[in-house]
């Protein structure tokens, strides 16, 4: 009986399955295939051209003995922690603000979300100009007579990461706002009425009732922002080019530099494989608990 139902289902949806074949082929061969090939190259001695030899973990040993790579990991952790935390808090506050039926809601919503529509290159160039001592705010303030004003974040190795965090938060907070606002608009009004009758403070309602309800939107926003941080390359190149020195170096730039400028395919693929494993170790438990875990418990 089950075989007959399966056969009927396949025949009924045969056209749909055929339409999906090109996309499935792209995913399997172009995406998963190149990923597997990159992992294989990380265990070879490939330099300018790929080699089919096997050198074990030699590339990984060299990778974690490279100070530039270790610096990029430290910078990545710093940017990721501050970026995700500030984006979530700021995006949540913006969503709550707009959800109060404020005047010119459409204008506020567009203004807050507009930075996310801009490319990372444009964002990096814009903030590079704003924070450049010779072009931006510092130059403007000095021309106005404030000769002692200093805002040299992009050229100061001690503050350049704060400048990067500022630019990324400006770019990504609108995404969190949009996702959480959509979730807030789906909250039943009877819930708000009940909390008002019970006299529960608004901050407790948001912290212990509303945010748990919005958990799927929160997870989605954090995953999207995490992916943007992992592949952050264009913003860094446009804004600081990894400088001053290696003060704003990130893993994506390290990988691209070794792949195209330093002609070290083995080291670049080892770095990319390390980042892939790191992302999977972080995201996989979150996705499992959010989606697969619920299915298992409901069953």
TrEMBL record:
The chain crosses the membrane at residues 15-39, 76-98, 110-130, 160-184, 205-230, 265-288. CDD domains: TM_PBP2. The keyword tRNA processing does not apply. SUPFAM superfamilies: MetI-like. Residues 73-288 form the ABC transmembrane type-1 domain. Belongs to the binding-protein-dependent transport system permease family. Keywords: Cell membrane, Membrane, Transmembrane, Transmembrane helix, Transport. PROSITE patterns: ABC_TM1. GO terms for cellular component: plasma membrane. It is a multi-pass membrane protein. It is found in: Cell membrane. It comes from the Bacteria. The keyword Transmembrane helix applies. One of its GO terms (biological process) is transmembrane transport. This is Carbohydrate ABC transporter membrane protein 1, CUT1 family.
């Amino acid at each position: 009986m089950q075989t007959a139902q399966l056969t009927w289902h396949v025949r009924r949806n045969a056209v749909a399955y055929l339409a999906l074949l090109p996309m499935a082929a792209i995913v399997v061969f172009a995406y998963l295939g190149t990923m597997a090939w990159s992992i294989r190259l990380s265990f070879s001695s490939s330099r300018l051209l790929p080699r089919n030899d096997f050198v074990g973990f030699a590339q990984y040993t060299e990778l974690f003995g490279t100070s530039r790579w270790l610096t990029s990991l430290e910078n990545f952790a710093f940017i990721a922690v501050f970026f995700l935390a500030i984006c979530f808090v700021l995006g949540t506050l913006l969503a709550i603000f707009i959800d109060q039926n404020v005047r010119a809601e459409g204008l506020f919503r567009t203004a807050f979300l507009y930075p996310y529509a801009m490319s990372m290159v444009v964002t990096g160039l814009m903030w590079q100009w704003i924070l450049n001592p010779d072009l931006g705010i510092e130059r403007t303030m000095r021309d106005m007579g404030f000769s002692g004003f200093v805002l040299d974040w992009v050229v100061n190795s001690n503050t350049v990461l704060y400048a990067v965090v500022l630019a990324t938060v400006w770019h990504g907070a609108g995404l969190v706002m949009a996702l959480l606002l959509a979730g807030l608009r789906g909250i039943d009004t009877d819930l708000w009425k009940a909390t008002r009758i019970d006299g529960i403070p608004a901050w407790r309602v948001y912290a212990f009732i509303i945010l748990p309800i919005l958990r799927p939107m929160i997870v989605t926003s954090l995953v999207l922002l995490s992916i943007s941080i992992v592949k952050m390359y264009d913003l860094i190149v446009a804004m600081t080019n990894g400088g001053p020195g290696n003060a704003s170096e990130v893993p994506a730039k390290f990988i691209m530099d070794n792949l195209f400028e330093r002609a070290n395919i083995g080291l670049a693929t080892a770095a990319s494989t390390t980042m892939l494993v790191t992302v999977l170790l972080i995201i996989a438990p979150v996705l499992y608990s959010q989606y697969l875990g619920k299915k298992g418990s409901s069953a």
